[in-house]
Write a structure and sequence with these properties.
The complex is a heterodimer of chains A (312) and B (397).
Chain A: H1 2-25, H2 27-54, E1 57-58, E2 66-67, H3 71-79, H4 81-113, H5 117-132, H6 140-143, H7 151-158, H8 172-185, H9 190-200, H10 204-212, H11 218-229, H12 231-246, H13 250-256, H14 268-278, H15 282-307
Antiparallel strand pairs in A: 1-2
Helix pairs in contact in A: 2-15, 4-8, 4-9, 4-12, 4-14, 8-13, 9-12, 12-15, 14-15
Chain B: H1 3-10, H2 17-28, H3 41-60, H4 68-74, E1 77-79, E2 82-84, H5 89-114, H6 125-153, H7 157-160, H8 175-186, H9 191-222, H10 228-238, H11 247-256, H12 264-271, H13 274-284, H14 289-297, H15 302-313, H16 315-330, H17 346-354, H18 361-381, H19 383-390
Antiparallel strand pairs in B: 1-2
Helix pairs in contact in B: 3-5, 5-6, 6-18, 8-18, 9-12, 9-13, 9-16, 10-13, 13-16, 14-15, 16-18, 16-19, 17-18
Classes of the chains: A mainly alpha (312), B mainly alpha (397).
């Protein structure tokens, strides 16, 4: 037994020595990596670790952090009614806009791919523009304005569908619907671009082989040829749409107000902002952030493993 | 022997053209091919013209014209034929049906007359029509808010508040833009200052990001060194964490580094944006390794290889990470880390105007147009390069 452990230790040690020697030989690589790595650790890894640490403390920036165990998490789940609203809203948004936005991005990228070249160029710009047009979603606050001058209201009034203008952005009944529509409008982002590019680079001879082997319609072609060869882009697109679906913050703040009526448009991120930058309860805000990290990583793992099975 | 004589011998004499073809097919043991269905363009044009005319008639002459009071109170309009309740769902339905019909014919015409002659064998024409129609409808829905914001920015005040509102302005004016200049001119910090701040942040952040991320991407893509893969998988995980989630601890770190209220608080995290490194690395993996080995044999150092060989070859990827970085930095409002008014960004100033309520609607629309113009223009100009890079963006197992 001891010889086994000894051998194992030796293998590990040799492995380590080998890696060390290799690292020494390739130290110029680390030199190249260093500037990025330092910044990356300082502004992406360290924040995540420190937010886990602060989530166990009471910290308001002025006083040094005081360790309070799981108190933040207990308060979050048992006492904070608004947080539960925020979780409900965030999940509603994520469950609807995540998958729907993802599938729509793929479908439209696929449809666009068959267009003639010059129309394709225009179509890509048209579909991608909303997601890069910074705060263009502000315009929805005019479209959905609560009085009769608002475009949607006046349109519905003209057609006699409603009798009096509806308060789209302050009535809790409608806020979430409006926000989901706006987020869906913006959902053709980086993932969409990746799909368009990926579809262009699928090997043409595969399709020709498909015709010969009896692929009868476009859907069979999609399932048996296109999707399997697009798998890397699908995985990348999934990461991007998870990011988008969970980090909803600007749209509800700009459209529904901050805070919104009855907290009807409160999401986890706006809740985090409220505690972090309005009340400076950094410990509590970190607990919220940590919960969000965990949910996102979990979600990512589930989706990645599901996507690996596509078309195989 | 002339060509004519050969044909004469090969084909039996006393048969019609169809019989000849059949005979030949039997001779070669082939199934006779269906004759290609050719499009009767004339008939098609007549049919579509009629349909278009009927649809237009239904849409525009079924009591479409309403005015405000009628819509509000009576929902009834006097027309020549007596009283028609124009708000009845049947008319709405009729209009929608007519529009869809119109759409189908237009798409069919476009496909038949403009599309390439050689169609893919396994595509049905009706499927194509459905898809193109759907694409057209969704494209209009996608572009409408953007067009609408441009239109609102060009409307004079009285048209912004009219009922029923119109999408397109009747008297185009630049008043909103000049009002914007006046409003911004009255503020404590001049407009130009906000613009300079944003431009500085965007340019500095993007420049540093391209250099630093390319250096890291180069070694991650082309050398296998201990820790490289682990580092890259960390970056891939970090793709998910946008600025909001790390905002709180970032603030604490910045305050420890005494960088709160300086540009560095925005620029330094932008240097390390994971998306840029990720795309750059995936693109660089496509470069032939032999190129680098050849340079090694010629005695070039790593830095020289990076600067003189790799960088010129990944220009499409530069453009891509430049647009992602510009888009990110141009849109930062940075309100959480910058407190002095004279260091605030353009987007922050503009959000204040947008928050100005109904009285500022026109100016807010003008602001929206100004801010969205920059990223969209850059994207349009560099679209083909960006798509080239994105083709290698996949996450491999």
């Amino acid at each position: 037994m001891s010889s086994f452990i000894g051998r194992y230790a030796k293998i590990k040690r040799d492995h380590f020595r080998y890696n060390l020697a290799k690292a020494k030989r390739m130290r110029v690589c680390y030199l190249f990596l260093a500037p990025y790595a330092v910044l990356f650790f300082a502004f992406f890894i360290l924040p995540i670790l420190s937010s886990i640490y602060y989530s166990f403390t009471y910290y308001n920036i002025l006083e040094p952090p005081r360790f309070i165990g799981f108190q933040n998490y207990i308060n979050l789940i048992l006492q904070d009614q608004v947080f539960l609203t925020a979780v409900k809203n965030t999940f509603l948004i994520a469950v609807i806009t995540g998958p729907v936005g993802y599938i729509l991005s793929f479908l439209f990228a696929w449809f666009i791919n068959e267009l003639p070249r010059w129309i394709r160029t225009i179509a890509v710009v048209v579909f991608y523009a909303p997601s890069i047009a910074s705060n263009a979603f502000f315009i929805f606050s005019i479209i959905f304005r609560g009085d009769a001058y608002g475009y949607l209201n006046s349109f519905l009034l003209q057609f006699g569908i409603i009798n009096a203008p509806l308060l789209w952005l302050s009535d809790p009944k409608y806020i979430m619907t409006v926000i989901i529509i706006v987020i869906l409008w913006m959902s053709m982002g980086t993932g969409f671009l990746s799909f368009v590019a990926g579809l262009q680079s699928v090997d043409r001879s595969m399709y020709e082989a498909g015709y010969v082997d009896g692929v009868r319609n476009r859907w069979q072609e999609l399932y048996y040829i296109t999707l399997p060869s697009m798998k890397p882009m699908l995985l990348f697109g999934a990461v991007m749409s998870i990011t988008q679906a969970f980090n909803v913050c600007d749209v509800p703040r700009a459209l529904a107000g901050y805070p919104s009526t009855d907290y009807a448009a409160r999401t986890i991120v706006t809740h985090l902002f409220d505690y972090g930058f309005s009340r400076f309860e950094m410990g509590y805000a970190s607990a919220i952030a940590t919960v969000l990290f965990l949910v996102m990583i979990l979600c990512n793992k589930v989706i990645q493993s599901a996507l690996r099975k596509v078309g195989t | 022997m002339s060509k004519k004589q050969v044909r004469h011998i090969a084909q039996p004499k006393s048969k019609s053209r169809a019989e000849q073809l059949k005979f030949l097919a039997e001779l070669h043991g082939e199934v006779q091919q269906k004759p290609q269905k050719t499009l009767n363009v004339k008939r098609f044009l007549i049919i579509s013209a009629v349909v278009v005319a009927v649809s237009l008639a239904v849409v525009f002459f079924s009591g479409y014209r309403l005015n405000a009071i009628d819509a509000y109170n009576l929902q009834v309009v006097e027309t020549g034929q007596g009283t028609i309740n124009t708000s009845s769902p049947i008319y709405t339905l009729l209009r929608i049906v007519a529009l869809i019909e119109l759409g189908i014919y237009v798409v069919y015409a476009v496909i038949r007359l403009l599309a390439p002659k050689r169609r893919k064998p396994n595509r049905s024409i009706w499927g194509d029509i459905g898809i193109y129609l759907l694409l057209a409808i969704v494209a209009v829905a996608m572009i409408f808010p953007l067009v609408f914001s441009v239109c609102s920015a060009l409307k004079p005040l009285d048209e912004l508040f009219r009922f029923p509102p119109r999408v397109f302005p009747q008297h185009v004016t630049l008043d909103n833009f000049s009002d914007l200049v006046v409003t911004m001119g009255q503020s404590w910090v001049p407009f130009l200052r906000y613009l300079t701040n944003t431009v500085f942040i965007t340019v500095a952040g993007t420049f540093g990001h391209v250099i630093i991320a390319s250096m890291a991407a180069f070694v991650l893509a082309k050398y296998d060194f201990p820790g490289g893969r682990t580092f890259f998988s960390l970056v891939v995980t970090a793709l998910m964490f946008s600025g909001y989630v790390t905002g709180i601890p970032n603030y604490v770190i910045m305050s420890r580094l005494h960088m709160i209220d300086t540009y560095w608080a925005i620029i330094l995290p932008a240097f390390a944006a994971p998306v840029g490194l990720f795309l750059m690395k995936q693109f660089m993996e496509g470069l032939p390794t032999s190129l680098i080995e050849a340079a090694h044999l010629d005695g070039a150092g790593e830095f020289r290889i990076f600067w003189n060989i790799v960088m010129p070859n990944v220009k499409p990827a530069w453009l891509t990470i430049i647009i992602f970085s510009v888009q990110n930095l141009w849109n930062t409002n940075a309100a959480t880390v910058i407190y002095s008014e004279e260091k605030k960004t353009l987007v922050y100033a503009l959000q204040q105007i947008q928050a100005g309520g109904i009285a500022r609607t026109g100016q807010a629309a003008a602001v929206t147009v100004i801010v969205m113009l920059v990223p969209i223009t850059i994207f349009i100009l560099s679209q083909s390069r960006i798509l080239e890079t994105m083709a290698s963006s996949g996450l491999k197992d």
